[in-house]
Write a structure and sequence with these properties.
184 residues, mainly alpha, two-stranded antiparallel ribbon, 4% strand, Biotin transporter, BioY, membrane, cell membrane
Length: 184
């Protein structure tokens, strides 16, 4: 891994931590709040590519597990990894990998609508399909109830998917994916 990629991984972990400073929006019917941090997950995937984005999100999860209050609302520590938000948090490295992988595949013909589609399926849907059932298991509710409750996240997550795609396409020239594409 090049130094530049390590710096990008660290910067995106820090960026996601900064997004955690935006206060969460609690929902009364589900124990998981709406946060801005999934924007950072999607942006990491479609800007950094699969390898660097995954490393960035693994770094973030490790820092949270070590107790740093990087999650929205100032949460951190091992308790987060066994609480209702555990599935969502642990899905982030996988989502970043999938978004990065799919983005790298379409990079030569990159278009905003393609990245939005990738962010929606590999980000929004994947994170909720992992997070909601884990939340349901931890809170002793039905998986179906968890999935129905997670529908509340869809409007905001779709907006975040569009924002991440627009930003990634606009800064394409400085993306590590672009650099790798020209080095072959």
């Amino acid at each position: 891994m090049k130094t530049k990629e390590m710096v990008f991984a660290a910067l995106f972990a820090a960026f996601i931590a900064v997004l955690g400073m935006i206060p969460p929006i609690p929902l009364g019917f589900i124990p998981v709040p709406v946060t801005a941090q999934t924007l950072g997950v999607m942006l990491a995937g479609c800007f950094l590519g699969r390898k660097t984005a995954t490393i960035s999100l693994i770094l973030f999860v490790v820092l949270v597990a070590l107790g740093l209050p990087l999650l929205s609302g100032g949460r951190g520590g091992l308790s987060v990894l066994v609480g209702p938000t555990a599935g969502y948090l642990l899905s982030w490295p996988l989502a970043a990998f999938c978004i990065g992988y799919a983005t790298e595949k379409v990079w030569p013909s990159l278009a905003t609508w393609k990245v939005i589609t990738i962010n929606f399926f590999c980000g929004v849907i994947l994170i909720n399909l992992i997070g909601a059932p884990v939340m349901a298991l931890i809170t002793h509710t039905s998986v179906w109830a968890g999935l129905v409750g997670a529908l509340a996240f869809l409007p905001g997550d779709c907006i975040k998917a569009v924002i991440a795609a627009i930003i990634a396409v606009q800064v394409r020239a400085i993306s590590p994916i672009e650099e790798r594409a020209h080095s072959f």
